[in-house]
Amino acid sequence: MATKKLNKIKRLIKVTISLLALFYARVANGLLTLAGKKPRATCVVLYYHAVSTVDRRQFAWQMDELLRLTTPIAASNRQDLKPGLNYAAVTFDDAVQSVVVNAIPELLLRNIPATIFVVVNFVGGTPKWATYGPEYDDQDRIITLEQLKSLREDLFTIGSHTLSHQWLPSLSESEARIELMGSRNNLGALLDREIKLFSFPYGAMSDELVTWCEQAGYERVFTIVPTHAFSDAREFVSGRITADPGDWRLEFRLKLLGAYQWLHLVYRFKKTFLSKSLIRKPKLSKVF
Questions:
Q1: pTM higher than 0.85, yes or no?
Q2: Which H/E stretch holds residue 157?
Q3: Contact at 8 Å (CB) between 197 and 75?
Q4: How many C-beta neighbours within 10 Å does residue 217 have?
Q5: CB-based burial of residue 188 (10 Å sphere; 0-12 exposed, 13-18 middle, 19+ buried)?
Q6: 120-148: per-residue pLDDT in tens?
Q7: CA–CA separation, 93 and 198 (whole Å)
Q8: Residues 164 and 117: beta-carbon distance below 8 Å
């Protein structure tokens, strides 16, 4: 009970700061407009994990809001963003079955592109890594190869999430390179297509890992740092903001509009003072 209350207080604080950040951005954009200039485009990349049957209706509402407040684009976007517009991209880490059953039909209905990051060694099986959040169901399996192949290539992009979902900063260079390059090559061979995108498990990364991703042949990698994405259409490292069907409606709208991007300062603080990697390794509370 105390933990739930503390989490609620933290969320309320984030919402309050984000409202102030949005107000500041709106004032700044208004001044630019008065000066005859167009405000810069904004783009957020959302990342989900699971979407349960119970949460499907709320996820559908979120996608309606995404269409109402932003222009949806693919996470593989390489085009310059038009000034004055808000953009959003949707991604899913781990590729669990609940995403296939509950999220993908809603995206198809609205023609919203999405990227699904796959843990290659567990395709068609059950998650064997540890998790530290409530978003998983014990029975949730990983998407099958047949399901991956059946996804519309014009709407859904497949990316790598390593071979085995390990905490990459704890691995040796050779082990990390196998996770990065092996997952790209193996997934590409399974699907007979080039794999260009990658997301870091747990968001755990380092400058060395980014370099090894470039050398492995990826065109773009994704973190969990909530920065504005695609300010440079050719950027290699793109930030994302966590999204969940259980987000409060105001909370989700603020995320879509880029009002949570101030949180990257918190991540920078953690990187500087708390850990050598981007965020510290979590206490693993549940093992599949």
A1: yes
A2: strand 156-160
A3: yes
A4: 15
A5: middle
A6: 999 999 887 765 444 555 557 899 999 99
A7: 10
A8: no
Q: How many CA atoms lie within 13 A of 46 on its CB side?
A: 30
* Distance from C-alpha of 155 to C-alpha of 137, rounded to nearest angstrom: 26
Task: Enter the tokens of residue 17.
Answer: 């700061």
β-pairing, 286-287 vs 130-131, is antiparallel
Burial classification of residue 78, based on how many CB atoms lie within 10 Å of its CB (0-12 exposed, 13-18 middle, 19 or more buried): exposed
CA distance 99 to 244: 12
Closest by CA position to 162, among listed 203, 191, 106 = 203
For 61-85, what is each residue's pLDDT tens digit? 999 999 999 999 999 999 999 999 9
Q: Shortest CA distance to 47 belongs to which of 253, 264, 241?
A: 241
CA-wise closest residue to 180 among 144, 224, 221: 221
Q: According to DSSP H, which parts of the chain are helical?
A: 2-34, 56-69, 97-98, 104-110, 145-150, 173-177, 183-191, 207-216, 249-256, 264-273
Q: What are the backbone angles phi and psi of residue 188, rounded to the nearest 5°?
A: -60, -40
Cα–Cα distance measured from residue 145 to residue 172, given in angstroms and rounded to the nearest whole number? 29
Q: DSSP per residue over 201-252, as a string? A: GGG---HHHHHHHHHHT-SEEE-S--PPP-SSTT-SEE--EE--TTS-HHHH
Cα dihedral 240/103/136/116 (nearest 10): -50
